[in-house]
Amino acid sequence: MERQPIMAANWKLHKTVAEARQFVDALKAGTTALEGVDVVVAAPFTALYAMSEQLRGTSVHLAAQDVFWERRGAFTGEISAPMLVDVGCSHVIIGHSERRQCFGETDDTVQRKVQAALAAGLGPIVCIGETLEQRQAGETFRMIETQIRAGLAGCDADEASRLVLAYEPIWAIGTGVTATPAEAQDVHRQIRHLLAELWGEAAAQGIRVQYGGSVKPDNIASLMAEADIDGALVGGASLEADSFIQILMYRG
């Protein structure tokens, strides 16, 4: 099965509304000829509404970087999935390693957020990945299997088809060190085998699995040449429109 690549920009804690608007203008101007790639931009909550207005009528998808699992209630500072839909989001990143490491997120909270996102009609981009210590100890896939089984518990095959998984080795995020295409492909292949075990071969072949971790214009083509890498979750290289556009145009 041929899966359409999906490239997502994760801005993290960057960009004011004005800066976000400038980026969108440049992205729209630079991708008029782009075909065959789904484009997602995950912006700070404060910029989402303004960006949704700019992106109306385009094929660029808007994403939030996090979501809470309750629809409403006494949860000061949280944002619900219906709120994200209301401001124009179609996707949301869930379980990024920075959320896990800095804010105490667990596989259980990931699972609750995934279910909330699906219920609201959002497409979850679910992050998984191992630390350097876990990789050196030969525990890469054990950790990833745990994250997938627990974080996606309760999903059926139809719901799983709406997911995007983002494999991000924690040791490669923001370090300038990227897993080699062969290393990334090996993990992606094992992920797809697990997905087949969980939901069947047909579902597994339809779920897109991105790679993330120091993705840049000069390494994206080699990563995308691998059979089971279906896109990228891009951090630092997505902050400048020019470099992100180069990544989107990886086919040349």
Automatic annotation (TrEMBL):
Q: Decide whether keyword Cytoplasm is in the record.
A: yes
- Which pathway does it operate in? Carbohydrate degradation; glycolysis; D-glyceraldehyde 3-phosphate from glycerone phosphate: step 1/1; Carbohydrate biosynthesis; gluconeogenesis
Pfam families (alphabetical): TIM
Q: Which SUPFAM superfamilies match?
A: Triosephosphate isomerase (TIM) (SSF51351)
Question: Where along the chain is the active site annotated?
Answer: 96, 168
Q: What is its EC number?
A: 5.3.1.1
Q: Which domain of life is it from?
A: Bacteria
Q: Give the primary localization class.
A: cytoplasm
* Positions contributing to substrate binding: 10-12, 174, 214, 235-236
**Alphabetic keyword roster:** Cytoplasm, Gluconeogenesis, Glycolysis, Isomerase
The terms describing its cellular component in GO are: cytosol
Q: Which residues form a coiled coil?
A: none
Q: Which reaction does it catalyse?
A: D-glyceraldehyde 3-phosphate = dihydroxyacetone phosphate
Write down the NCBIfam families for this protein, in alphabetical order: tim
Q: Which family does it belong to?
A: Belongs to the triosephosphate isomerase family.
The UniProt subunit note reads as follows: Homodimer.
Write out the function statement from the record: Involved in the gluconeogenesis. Catalyzes stereospecifically the conversion of dihydroxyacetone phosphate (DHAP) to D-glyceraldehyde-3-phosphate (G3P).
Name this polypeptide is given:
Triosephosphate isomerase
